[in-house]
């Protein structure tokens, strides 16, 4: 459950959650319109299925649109789906990379601070610092 909370926080901080919710609202609206204008789509659930298939560009072909409005909606849903597929992971990865950079800078700052006051460190602190340097060297 903790991983979901972290994921939710990242999505919220990056604004991606708003983008995702707007996508779901758009799909719901598109499905409502399709259920009205398309003769082959009889329920909102069928229309949502069609919008899902169109947005993921799977295109099973079990439901087809025949009206001009249905085709325009399909193009918009497909374009929005492609945009979501490209944008959301990019934003999340970019956020995570920035987070790692900040964390690395903080770690380096703490390390440099300890080096600056090297003569004042206790034996335990010197031992910990030595172990961290050895760990760093082993990772390289």
TrEMBL record:
| Membrane-protein topology | Multi-pass membrane protein
Q: Which GO terms describe its biological process?
A: action potential
Q: Which GO terms describe its molecular function?
A: voltage-gated potassium channel activity
Alphabetized InterPro entries for the sequence? K_chnl_dom, VG_K_chnl
Q: Tell where it localizes.
A: Membrane
Keyword Ion transport among record annotations: yes
Q: Does the UniProt entry include the keyword Transmembrane?
A: yes
- The UniProt record lists the Potassium channel domain at 24-97
Please name the PANTHER family in this protein's record.
Answer: POTASSIUM VOLTAGE-GATED CHANNEL PROTEIN SHAB, VOLTAGE-GATED POTASSIUM CHANNEL
What is the name attached to this protein's record?
Answer: Two pore domain potassium channel family protein
Q: Name the source organism.
A: Sporofaciens musculi
